[in-house]
Amino acid sequence: xxxxxxxxxxxxxxxxxxxxxMPALLPPAKRAEGVVIGAxxxxxxxxxxxxxxxxxxxxxGVSNLMNMRPGDHATALPSGLAMASTWNPELIREGGAMIGxxxxxxxxxxxxxxxxxxxxxxxxxxxxxYLGEDPLLAGRLVGAQIAGVQSNPKMIAxxxxxxxxxxxxxxxxxxxxxxxxxxRESDLLAFQIGIEEGDPGSVMCAYNRVGGSYACENAFLLxxxxxxxxxxxxxxxxxxxxxxxxxxxxxxxDQQSGDQLDGKRWFSDxxxxxxxxxxxxxxxxxxxxxxxxxxxxxxxxxxxxxxARQPIDYAANGRIAQQVAxxxxxxxxxxxxILPIAASAGKILVVGGNADKGVPSGGGSxxxxxxxxxxxxxxxxxxxxxSFARRAFGGTPPLDALRRELPSAAITYVDGSDPAxxxxxxxxxxxxIVFADKFAAETMDHPDLSLDGEQDALIASLAxxxxxxxxxxxxxxxxxxxxxxxxxxxxxxxxGGQEGGTAIARILTGRVNPSGHLPVTFPRSVDQLxxxxxxxxxxxxxxxxxxxxxxxxxxxxxxxxxxxxxxxxGYRWFDAKGLTPLYPFGHGLSYxxxxxxxxxxxxxxxxxxxxxxxxxxEREGADVAQVYISRPxxxxxxxxxxxxxxxxxxxxxxSIMADPRVIGDFDPALRKWVVPQGTYTVELARSATDIVERxxxxxxxxxxxx
Length: 706
Ligand code: BGC
Description:
Elements: H1 2-8, H2 11-17, E1 40-42, E2 53-56, H3 80-85, H4 89-105, E3 110-111, H5 135-150, E4 156-162, E5 175-177, H6 180-184, H7 187-198, E6 202-205, E7 209-210, E8 213-214, H8 219-229, E9 235-238, H9 248-251, H10 271-277, H11 282-298, H12 314-328, E10 330-334, E11 347-351, E12 374-379, E13 390-394, H13 398-405, E14 410-414, H14 419-427, E15 431-438, H15 455-465, E16 469-475, E17 489-492, H16 500-508, H17 544-550, E18 560-562, H18 571-577, E19 594-602, E20 608-615, E21 621-630, E22 637-646, E23 651-657, E24 665-667, E25 672-675, E26 678-685, E27 691-699, E28 702-704
Parallel strand pairs: 2-3, 3-4, 4-6, 5-7, 5-18, 6-9, 11-14, 11-15, 15-16, 16-17
Antiparallel strand pairs: 1-2, 7-8, 10-17, 12-13, 19-20, 20-23, 21-22, 21-26, 24-25, 25-28, 26-27
């Protein structure tokens, strides 16, 4: 089909498919009639039934950046880290199907979802959008999300940002230096699994360079790995402002997105003369246009009607967002069973963290204006390239939700701006709940791990006044907790999306039993990180010459990022170095308890693990049991997990067939994954460091295609 259509197209029509615009930056007269304003728009070929590609962000719902569709809102899912904390692919798939249905109903046919860059550094500003530090967990979840989005008819999803755009500092100039095996076993593996399981129509290449060449003109990434080894069938679009040459088309980039952001219209104005002179062969144009066309057909976008809008059931969609938020909250600590809060709670003091407004999201292109709109919307940077990263409050405020859940308690709120008054009020309370937030956004990394402003001192002072204290963290990353030992209960609630406040209240009161588990390690301090100093944090500002080379969005002079951990991101680094984190990957408490039995590990060609889990406590709850593997000289790796919802006394069996790629090594010389023959240790665990049982097993050598 694509071949026949391509044969009927003239050069201008083909070129039209190869570049997109940001419709919000187009003068109204130049905008195609009826097209919804979103992140991007690619003109179609109406005479041949090829629709425009109408693109929206993305991973956490249909965003409406800078209110480009005045007043429009959408169901705001919790952050990616909250989604990953559910360890629940089925639920994440449902969330994907929900946001995809809203995108479709609003007139979009391409969603720029899902983000699966690995969390390598807890200071990175976009971690909240992503799915944690482990390639298997992140890859499976992003695959599920994409499959959900694309379960809607006539919808393309876009996995991003390919690859290793793992920090914001210098994202337009940084060059990641990592050997191939390390890349394949970490960041690339998350993409590989996500693509296998989700089959996205498109891949978005990243801003940064990898091994010296821009991700969007990197033949190794876009051609050898993505298409050659992985057999990716869709098309590659660039990130917005990530293209630096027309020759990128030869490396495997098919479409320049939002071309007003690049210095030049590389895939239109600059391409034409090069086609005419033969510098870029016609075949390259046909190949890129052909890939876009075949994706359009495969996802049945032909015949898509941009004017067909559907009503949206926001109430039903809000319930999905709430479920994700509830399953994504991690109970980190609960000394003395201070939680859940009893219905007869008495006097409760709620302090700080904008608990009266709600903290639904981080800032940047992923930010969704929740149903009901934002209550406050603050610009955080005057830099024009960062001005779209705004801090916003809205959704369900936890304070209102707590009052609803605990109607007979006397709940008072102080915002914490007067620490002395808050501390005095705490003395008199039966329970103090402190909300602590930290704003994270695209384009900005954190300088350190501490909470914003004076919140650490406030918490310490409140804890000094009243030992019955609970801290609820609403952050986009792991944070330091200098007050940790003084506080008996701590919840990591991330950014909870529009129903985050309701979810927090229902967890605190025990209406819902916490079941989230950390998808990232909480370090004790930055000194435990592979790069104690954030790469590029001392790079000089870009000058005119650097901007001429690296583009208008370049803000720093170029620098290299070396990741000393290689493929051992997160808990693997902590394991390899024998470091004890503040909270390990996989950790999460419950109000009930679980017991494990019949742990069986079978070796040979393929590793198979099974065990039973029983709810040995008094309440219904969900367990996330994990299995890790290691061998001498190698850090442990997650090979699987089982999430089991159990009534008290109920038990279930979990069976895991391990993917050899998370056991073995990538051998660049053989261009294969190799599981070496040998004895391995297989752990059934509650977290990366809380081991229930260990078994030794012998595995035979196995080679697997890349
Ligand atoms: C982000 C992408 C996003 C695009 C379009 C870029 O700034 O990196 O994730 O999809 O903008 O809004």
